[in-house]
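Kindly draft a sequence, keeping tokens residue-aligned:
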Amino acid sequence: MQKNTLLRPSHSVLFGETEIRFSLNFVDRKTLAIHVYPDGGVNVDAPLSAELEKIYDKVKKRSLWILKQQRQFAAYPPALPARRYVSGETHRYLGRQYRLKIMAGDSETVKLTRGSLQVETQHPQGSLRVQRLLQTWYRSKALTVFTERYAQCVQYVERLGIYHNKGFQLRFMSKRWGSCTGKGTIILNPELIAAPKDCIDYVIIHELCHLKEHNHGQAFYRLLNAVLEDWEFRRKRLNEMVEVRFV
């Protein structure tokens, strides 16, 4: 079982005159991993036995890469306002936008029809109920589509000596589209179903590559590029088009 102990307050290192702040988690893994999120936040997952001084040294060595990632994310459009879950809002599914249409009825269902995302509920004025119905619907669709894409992506990486037959888990996450644990468990965010299939493939392949290269170092990106030459375009498209909404 993974131990997840967040140390507060945030830690920091200096790169020239620039302060790089990061949160730190000690987890059950063998190597250190650095994550940069769309909001510019930095998180470090370190082995349980890692010494704080060595963690700082590794973060400082990756400073240029961290700053580059933050600049790339800063260039993306600003976050959209919070959802209200009322008729007329736009919601994405597999890259296409659909207008939300909330209807009163005896059933509690969600379906795509005539270019709209139709929600029928006994409580049409209850935004929390509509949100939960949509979340359940997205999760169901995600399971079906991700299963298909996972099977295809596993074949893509096998020629590079990466093998995986454990399937994946679904988990709504506030800052990640996917993750790969130290034990090789692939976790995917159901909200990724809002993205086009080529972007879904990018996330799955990204996590599968972590089975061989745990850190976001040069070796990892060489491996990712060998499988998916246009991964940067797909990542950019994903982050410009879709954002985490439910969490």
